[in-house]
Amino acid sequence: MTVPKLTVILANVETILVGILESRNDRFMNDIVLQLDSIPVEFMSLAAEVAPIERGYRVVVDRLSFCDPFLKEVVKSLSLSGTYVINNPFAASATNKILDMRLGGDLGLTFPKTIVLPDRTAIEEADGLVIQPDLHRVAEELGFPCVLKPYDGYAWEDVYVVRSADELQNLYLSLSSRRVLLAQQLIKFMSYFRVFCFDKRDILFIKWIPKPFSMGHYLYYDPDSIGEAKQRLTSLTIQLNQALDLDVNVLEWCVDEEGKWWVIDTYNEVPEVIPEALPTEYYRWIVDKFAACIRDKLNSGKKNRTPFAES
Fold it and tell me: Under a CB-based contact definition with an 8 Å cutoff, are residues 266 and 251 in contact?
């Protein structure tokens, strides 16, 4: 499908209110910009920047800095200059799967049993401070199959289902040269959901068949069929996003054959949204809520929460 052409810099407008940090050809973001009506918007272009970095944006939608250190520092500087960045760049830089389990566990979310495995560089260079993990004990704790994945991973990168001690040993040696890994209990689920959360209040449950590399697919599903769990899951999802200070996020919940709910992933702050992969009504809801979140920040005068006290 051809992406519609979009003029994003409006004529005779001196101040661009919303900057979009994403590919100009991204259909999802183009559909969101169309929802913003007459608001002055542009897809951002960055080169050498004068420090401290300041632009005239009131709001920046950040969909790229998670994978680029230069962009991470740009959006942090913009945030400190008064631009509201979606998502909060300080929260996004601080969080990972270990921290999320800490915060989520305090709120009452249930996670699979998890063991943190140090990177081998720390073992080799820390002069005995960090020692080689006992992978046999890890196997006994978790059983097989289990899951091995990076503590800071995205989009199924280096996520493996491990079925033997030898496989665990080989994967750990190949992946951990400079990367902290998580070995995790594998949950045998009956149903799996991606739960979209916008503005720390608007929630959408979508049933999902999880598969790597954009091969998973969504299903129509009546969220009320979840029963009494829906209200509790909604409340926990909102509380976690408030704690993480994320305006856009997707959690992954599943329920096992005993009816117990587990959180598999708490942090998808740049969720992949492929129009063709989603039922139309779900896609429209996501676009509408994302656009509403941008308008809210544009009109509210709010600023990102930062770890620094204002002078």
Answer: yes
